[in-house]
Amino acid sequence: MNVRLLPGALAFLFTATLFGQGCPPPTNIPVGSCAPQSGTVSNFSGDTGTMRVRKSIFKLSAAEIAELKLAFQKLRALPATDPRTWMAQAKVHCWYCSGDGTTVPDVHSNWAFLPWHRDFLYNLEKTLGTLVGNPNFALPYWDWNTPDTSACTGHLKVPPPYLGGGTANSLFDCYRKISSTTTMDVNRVGAARINTLLTNNNTFDLFFGTATTSSAMSPGPHGYVHLWVGNPSTLSGTQDMGILDTAARDPLFWAHHANIDRIWEMWIAKYGTPTYPSGFRSQNWLFWNQNKVRTRMTGGDAADRATRLKYRYDPPCGTLTVNQLPDFVQLTPTPLTVHAQAAIAPDHEFNIKGVTGRNVVLHLEDVTVPANEGAILRVYINKPSATAAESADDIAGVGNFVEELFIVPSRSPDSENHEGHEHKMHIKIALPPEIAAEVERAKGEVDVTIVPVAAGDEGVLMGVPTTANVRLKKPYISVE
Ligand code: C2O
Asked: pTM of the full predicted structure?
């Protein structure tokens, strides 16, 4: 045997399996030659299936994890002639980040960032579903921004299904810097960081970017996770996630980007669905769909996720992310009715039955009262006709809910140094099962009526309700 032929022969023999697992020597992977294969282009016509549900990777059942692994195994095993292969997917990503810098703008540096990745994930999700014969198959999301709870820990680490098992585990990638014990910096990707990011980026242009400026997410938490998983400076050539050319070779890429995509929905839950500019909607790109057809998809397809792409997000485990609306309401002696809602995507099913053992909670946040005043408030659910003239006993009954709050002054009414002092409370009101069921029927939306009442016999509070000098944030509901 001619020894000099051996490397080439080995490469030929083992290309399929080595590429299939993602652990070939880095030099064997042609970075930079990621021009897409040609093919007739057809325009995406909208998903006609049922709504798929993307779950947190930390909430998947053993059977769902097995299906996820099988799907990636089949993806890796596709013959190189198939345009949907694991490597072909990575090349599509490579092409749109640096493949041809002169004619294809990098989708990471402008408002293409969120919709491009959404459309990209859509095609992989449908392809994996086709490979395992499950049209309802949905990608999981790696919610690094969910706080750990006793029910569910390890959000800041690589999710366990993606680790271990070596080449037998289709979700494993040897080109990572991290192990099962390394932990991301909570200040860079945790709940507080994401809340701040959402609060600060309160306009369309700031959050989504523009045709020429970056989305807040891209160089923010998104970039941090890429570099954390595969830091290019420490891995010299073995850095899948750490370089955009190779990032989509790591199965973790898809779970990371599903979470980025979910944060788009969190922005909508906070601010409402934006009017997407026509230039945002008309941007378009080419992908390989689940039927090997080269498909043109647009920013508009991504913007109309629920109707065009047909998927939604299941909430993470632990406390739901709730809607912390910034606007304060000022009470007056007249009853005030405000609309409270759970912060969930509009088409999310508010399923109390699915959260057995958890409570539906009404939040009255930043209830603020001057230190030398008190207040008595009745809080009704779905009773906008409530007045101070009716007692709580009159109204409480089957299907009604009222909670009385007695806020005691913290300083004497005539104390001299109360100027500028307030007390502030975050009041949580757990709702009983029948009211929780009503909230569920209303898909997480209810009216909350707050009625200031006179102290009367109940106590010695002064100036109630003639002042009702109470402010609070707009109420919201959570499941926890
Ligand atoms: Cu297209 Cu997270 O990179």
From this structure: 0.67
